[in-house]
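Backbone geometry:
***
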Amino acid sequence: QVQLAEAGGGLVQPGGSLRLSCTASGSISSTYAVGWFRQAPGKERELVATHALDGRREYIDSVKGRFIIDRDNPNNAVYLQMNSLQPEDTAVYYCNAPIIGGGLWPWGQGTQVTVSS
């Protein structure tokens, strides 16, 4: 079973940038879509960005133009470049393959992103 490990979070000031990485223990090359989710305190986990095998990327409106998702199939990795970060981006970020109701694989520990001055 694929295990996921996220990294790259931290404390950043508004307007700053972070690059998150996710490494899968197994192959992601045949997984149609991989994505990044986030969960803010007291809120449901939400899907933020997806990257499909055909190269199509999709984002929720609040991060469009600021976040970029990339997948590296040979290295079983997924990345999220986050620019112009805002306090409302504060959350624990997780990667997974999105399916109806959640993620295809067991959730990793996530990586905390805190945007604060």
Summary: Residues 69 and 80 are 5 Å apart (CA to CA). The mean pLDDT is 96. The longest strand covers residues 18-24. The radius of gyration is 13 Å.
